[in-house]
Amino acid sequence: MQTDLSFPYFCFSTRLTRKTSMAAVPGITRLLLGDALVGEHERLRERVAQFFDRLEAQVRQILRDGELRDEARVAIPASSAARTLVAVIEGSMARFVRSRFRQPPTEDLEVLCTALIGALLRAPAGVD
Fold it and tell me: What phi, psi does 91 have (nearest 5°)?
């Protein structure tokens, strides 16, 4: 079964690239992962949590838009798929920090997006 995932893939990868491009900077990556937040004000921690909550909400909306446009159907609930995709983003950022900033979080991003979206989406109704 061949599925055209162009709309969800384009939206997700475009927004993901914009959101994670700042993660290529070691300082902001450490900040977003909480590594640089030891002893910091609680409001900063709340803002970091809010960033990831908003990212997850955007991904969830992209998935729902794909369903509304009948371009792709999410194989699991959109909220679960969004959490999975955001967890992969956080994991890539953590690997960036662990590698001492040698392996960028966007490394193999296109391959990861293609595999994940292919696994999380199924063909729209009426497409074989």
Answer: -65, -40
